[in-house]
Amino acid sequence: MPLRLSMLALVLVLAQSAPARGQDDASSFTTELGRAAVEFENDAIQLVAAYYYSQENHDSRWLLIEAAVTTEERTTIHRDAFRVVTPDGVEIPLASHARFRSDVERVRGLVQNASPTRHNIGSYFRRWRQEPFRFFRLPGTGTIQDDFVVDSDRTVLGDLFFASPTDAWANGTYTLVVELEGLRALVPIELD
């Protein structure tokens, strides 16, 4: 009887200490795809982030990250699932669309300047169906959405905009976080 109780206690300890899917050591699931493109992939979620323009041009309020994501199981991803964590540990949520629109001239300049450095992040996915997500839209370019659906056949791609509380982004290693119920992906963002 004591051996049975000891084994049960060991199983319970191991179950409590096991990380949730996608919450293991992030570096073991992260692959550099280029100077400013990174992929996180495990058995539940795949995220690719590219930030070629913002890597060297981050002395303004806005940080632009191109992102694509898919999951194995059908999942609705809301805009509040995305955040950036600064080197000091400060969490910065995805900018609101109202904040984005209030600084539209600066954002328009950022998008225009970043266009030559765009990266084909969709090419890293095996999913046959790729759709844009539209958390942000410049005036006159369509409607916005607050969430999107991904699954084993569908990848979504779009731009993420983060606003710095200090109107500039210091050099250092940031972390792009996508966190859903039971899923978490972490991607390092290196700003030079």
The rough form would be described as: globular
Largest sheet, strands/sense/barrel? 6 strands, mixed
Catalogue the unreliable spans.
1-24
Mean pLDDT: 83
| Overall radius of gyration | 19 Å
Determine the strand fraction and express it as a percent band: 35-45%
Total of helices:
4
Secondary structure: number of strands: 12
- The neighbouring-strand order within the major sheet is 1-2-3-4-10-8
Helix content: 10-25%
Summarize the structure.
The protein is α+β, with helices and mostly antiparallel strands. The chain has helices spanning 2-17, 52-56, 97-102, 104-114, and strands at 30-34, 37-41, 45-50, 62-71, 75-78, 82-85, 91-93, 129-132, 147-150, 154-163, 172-180, 183-191.
Polypeptide structure, described:
- The protein is α+β, with helices and mostly antiparallel strands and 192 residues long.
- The protein has one domain.
- 20% of the residues lie in helices and 38% in strands.
- The protein contains four helices and twelve strands, in the order αβββαββββααβββββ.
- Strands 1-2-3-4-10-8 form a six-stranded mixed β-sheet.
- Strand 11 and strand 12 form a beta hairpin.
- The longest helix is centred in the N-terminal third of the chain and has 16 residues, at 2-17.
- It is globular and about 40 Å long.
- The model is unreliable at 1-24 (pLDDT under 50).
